[in-house]
Structure formats: C-alpha cells, structure tokens
Design goal:
Elements (H helix, E strand, L loop, with lengths): L3 H4 L3 H20 L4 H7 L19 H6 L15 E5 L7 E5 L1 H17 L7 E4 L7 H13 L2 E3 L6 H11 L3 E4 L1 H13 L10 E5 L5 H11 L2 E8 L4 E6 L9 E2 L4 E6 L13 E7 L10 E7 L1 E2 L11 E2 L4 E2 L4 E3 L2 E3 L1 H9 L4 E10 L6 E8 L8 H16 L3 E6 L15 E4 L9
Parallel strand pairs: 3-4, 3-5, 5-6, 6-7, 18-21, 19-20
Antiparallel strand pairs: 1-2, 7-8, 8-9, 10-11, 11-12, 12-15, 13-14, 16-17, 18-19
Bound molecules: 5'-O-[hydroxy(phenylacetyl)phosphoryl]adenosine.
5'-O-[hydroxy(phenylacetyl)phosphoryl]adenosine binds next to helix 6, strand 7, strand 8 and strand 12.
Amino acid sequence: MYQPELETMGHAAKHHLQSERLIALIERLEASDVPYWQQKMAGVGSVKSINDITGLPFTVKAEMRAAFPYGMLTVPVDDCNRIHASSGTSGKPTVVAYTKADLGVFAEVNARVLGCAGARPQDVFHIAYGYGLFTGGLGLHGGAELFGVTVVPASGGNATLQVELLADLGARGFCATPSFTLLLAERAEAAGLMGRIKVEYGILGAEPWSESMRAKIEEAWDIHALDIYGLSEVIGPGVAMESVEGMGAPFIFDDHFFPEIVDPKTGDPVPNGDFGELVLTTLTKEALPVIRYRTGDITRFVDEPSPCGRTFRRMDRISGRVDDMLIVRGVNVFPSEVEAVVLAEPGVSGQWAIVLDKRGTLVEMVVRCELESQADVPRRDHIRDRIERQLHSRLRVRTRVAIGAPGSMPRSEVGKARRVFEQVDDRDPLAS
Ligand code: DLL
C-alpha cells in the first residue's frame, strides 16, 4: 500500500477530512474574482460539513466547453505547470490545467494505483497509454515515478515493438487500454514472445470493458487485469482503482474526489446500491476544481469491505455512459451489455462492434465479431445462434450476429476502442 494511513483511514476521520477540505474549497471559490466562479457560487448557502454537498450546484461538461480555454481556472495560467485536454467527439476539446500542487495530487493518486496493483519499487513498469494531451500516459508516469518503479514510457501504438520491449526489458507490470492489451497479446503470440514476457499485473481502463473482457485478457496474458478509472475533467487516471485483493469494486480515492450517485434524469441521489450517474467533487484541486461534476458514467456504490483493508468508498465497474445508451426499436441497450454476452462465448476473439443498420425503415442492430481460431470454423453457425439467443434473452431485442474469420475485424492501435458504428449505405462502416 502506498499510503497505508490515508488508505485505511477510519470513517469518522475521513468525514472530518472531507468536510474540512470542502469548506476550504468553497471559501476559496466564494472569494474568487473569476466570473465563472462568482456565478457558480452565487446563492450557495453555508457549508458546514461534507453532508452539505448535496445543496451545491452541479457542473456539466457543456460549462467546461463554454469556458474554453481558461475561463474556469481559479488561478492565472502562469501559475499552472501543465495542460492536458480531453478529446471531444466534436468541437473544441476540454482543456484542463494543473498547478504544481495538482500535479502532486495527480502523482500521489496514481502511486496509490500502483500499490493497489501489487507493484513493488523494484518493478519495471511499462506504460502503453498515449503520452500527450491525453492524461493517460503522463498521469500514470508521474505516479509510477513517485512510487519508485523503473518506468518504460512506451506510449500508445506500435504494438509489435511494444511486445518486444515487454519481453526484453522484463516488465512486471504495465498499463494500457483493455482493447490494446488484447492486441498486444495477439502480437506477442504471433511473435512467439509470450514465454519471455513476465508481466503479472495490468492496469487497464480509459474505456468501458466487461467482466467477459477481463476473463479474455487474463486468459491470454495470465495476469491480474485490474480496472482503473478516471477522467480529464476531474484529474485524469487515478480517480478510482481496483486492488488485487478486492477485485470487482474499484476504490474511489475519496479523500481527493468525493463521489455521489444520482438519478441521471432528476439529479436526485439514488437509493444506496442502485445504479445511477457518478458525480464527483474535487476536494483538493487548485487550478481547476469541479463541484458535483456530472461524469455521465453509470455505476453504483458497493459497500462491502475489501480484504486489502483500504477504506475508500467502492463502486461497481462502469457499466456504460448515460449518452452511450442506444435505443434500438424502443429498447435501451448499453454496448457494455453486448460485450459481456459476446465475449463470454468461447470461440470468439475479443474484437467486436455494434453496427446500427439504418438502411431500412426500422433500425437493425448487427453485432460483428470474429472467430478466435481457424479450428472454430465448423462451429461458426452454432456459435452465432448461441450469441443471438443470449443477446435476445438479455437485451429483449432481436440482434443479428455476423461472425467473421479470425483476424478479420479491424484493430486500432491508438486511442480508445470504438464500438458503435452506423450503416447508411452499402459501404462497410468498419472499413473507414
Ligand atoms: O480516459 C483517463 C484515464 C486514463 C483513465 C487512463 C484510466 C486510464 P478521458 O479521456 O477524459 O480520461 O475519458 C474519461 O473515459 O468519463 C469514462 O467514460 C471512460 N473511462 C475511463 N476509465 C474507464 C473505465 C481518461 N475503467 C472517460 N471503465 C470516462 C469504463 C472508463 N470507462
């Protein structure tokens, strides 16, 4: 454990710390002369403890976009040490900035991440998240250096070179997106390097993934595949992380990021243990704090203690995004549910996609995947029927499943896996 005292803090002490930090934050923001904060804080009543957080206004992504680039900063840009940006699907990115102290928090929470994964200071640790405006690479990098491992800053892309580095430099741990991790396994297998790669843990996140995906990754790599969660608007990676001993429910580092779960429609808190939208408040950030930020990510609190003894609030793995939900013939479908069904089927690889076929009057959902190996070819129809039946019983919507030959699905080497495509003409939407 990187910070045993903080990571196992008792409930009362945590409550006190969170309250103190929230009060200090609100005082600072109320005194700010930045127009954004003057408006945000207008009418905010007195805050005496963390329990008063529910009386504060929410923050949404659109506000951050509107404040582009620096309108939400509480400090002058020249007091900041670094800028990152989250790639929006359209329009301007969201710019996030960090003071020296913020970078300290960023490194601290990511050092905890390594501790959760069972890292040791003598490890070689390979970073396959992209370095650059994306927070993944540099975020884990700061944490890994602080923790004291030997860092290999491989960045994203170039899977073939990366598996050679993993083998030659002797990494015991690595971090990457789950989809890139599967691609690395394929390349390592193809290059005959699996026997020489000794990784024991992977710190995987930045995109949604399912328990079925975890099973595939752990089978391919023989590692602990651990879930790391985070978002640029809050800090980047290191908002929440699973521990090896307590898999299944990541810890939210709630001395820095206070979590709530609300009904995405009404904004009211959901009953404890119900699914809803994760809302986060940064208790310690300087340059760009956020108050009750609507992450758009869906999860629920898990209140079981973990055998590792960490006492942070725990959440379920992210099951989807409020805005990722597809409505197919009136039925709500989360892509992650599709993944859970498809990848649970032996004989299919980890590559899959949803194609919404909009050529007819009614939208048809087609799930595309591929066989794991040539040996499964005779079972192709049988596998397809089974997945179609499973999808129908789980989602209550008829889905067509198309299973291609091994290696036929496109693989992306950089960024986050894209899972949903639209078909509007006869061109293959996955080919672009
Ligand atoms: O993806 C930060 C990060 C880097 C997290 C490396 C983990 C590892 P953004 O690019 O701003 O930041 O994207 C944030 O990605 O709101 C979620 O929708 C999604 N996401 C991140 N981690 C997970 C995860 C980084 N473990 C958005 N499971 C978030 C599901 C995740 N979704």
